[in-house]
Amino acid sequence: MRLTPENTSRFVQAGPVKIHYHEAGTGPVLLCIHGGAPGAFGWSNFGRNLEALSQNFRTLIVDLPGYGKSDKPAIDGVRTGAYAQCFKDMLESLGIDKAHILGMATGGAVAIKMALEFPGVVDRLVLINCPGGLSLFQQKSAPATHSYYQGEGPSMERMRASMERLVFDKRCITEEMVRERYEASIAPEFMAQAPEGKGGKPGENLEVLWPELHRIEAKTLIIWGRDNPTLNYDNSLYMLNRIKNSRVHIHSQCGLLVPIEKPEEFNLEVTGFLKLQ
């Protein structure tokens, strides 16, 4: 049966927060945490990878609190720890003792925080183009995704432009992807609570994690797009130097959205790393 957003949709109470997620597959648990951006949600980042990943793992694709169909609680100040606690609570509610944690962008910072604060829960880490490193060279200017709500406000055209800035090959951004993100970006609850909905900058209210990377014990795969305009690929080299048991794969001709731009390579490298003895 073809996996769809509808037939994989689930909800679970994670402490005080109800989390929406998609689930498919059996085997070791793989928790996938999406990035923060206007209208972001789990399926938009990883839904197109679910069929391949679920062949080897019980794959859970979550919506961050404040995003998608998850509850939208008010979170003041730094959000990384609150998100990490929420997903620890989620795994506990599902009776899961240990899981592989995969995170992209904001989701990667949350995965790092989980590995630091709850090492017993985290099996292996996959970090994709995420805050938490430190630039060794001059960092490229980040695209102004925070301007999406300013001026004339949200539109399909502005959402397409925002998404196309994040990729190397603009042809991978389909009309369906633009529409689902646009519709999510104008949901009143999202605009009221998510940082990007308030006009915040990407990565705003995330904890500074690079001084703590040496404490990570989990085996870690760091994936980067060489042409990522938000965080230069030298961040991945810093992480490689600081995380004791880590490896890096830098994709050429690829931006931020590696799971979307390089889906077959991404699925194979994640599966291979997580199954490696």
Verbal overview:
The protein is an alpha/beta fold. It has one domain (9-275): Alpha/Beta hydrolase fold, catalytic domain (Rossmann fold, 3-Layer(aba) Sandwich). It has 10 helices and 8 strands. It has helices at residues 42-46, 50-53, 80-93, 106-117, 156-164, 175-185, 188-193, 234-242, 258-261, 263-275; strands at 9-14, 17-24, 29-33, 58-62, 99-104, 122-128, 219-225, 246-251. Strands 1-2-4-3-5-6-7-8 form an 8-stranded mixed sheet, with helices on both faces. β7 (219-225), α8 (234-242) and β8 (246-251) form a beta-alpha-beta unit. The protein is globular.
Keywords:
alpha/beta; 277 residues; 8-stranded mixed β-sheet; single chain; Rossmann fold
Reported by name, the CATH topology is: Rossmann fold
- By DSSP, the count of extended strands is 8
| SSE class | alpha/beta
Helix content: 25-40%
Output the CATH class name.
Answer: Alpha Beta
Please tell me how large the radius of gyration is. 17 Å
**Biggest pleated-sheet summary:** 8 strands, mixed
Summarize the structure.
With 277 residues, the protein is of the alpha/beta class. Helix content is 31%, strand content 18%. The protein has ten helices and eight strands.
Give me the secondary-structure topology.
Blueprint: E1 9-14, E2 17-24, E3 29-33, H1 42-46, H2 50-53, E4 58-62, H3 80-93, E5 99-104, H4 106-117, E6 122-128, H5 156-164, H6 175-185, H7 188-193, E7 219-225, H8 234-242, E8 246-251, H9 258-261, H10 263-275
Parallel strand pairs: 3-4, 3-5, 5-6, 6-7, 7-8
Antiparallel strand pairs: 1-2, 2-4
Helix pairs in contact: 3-4, 5-6
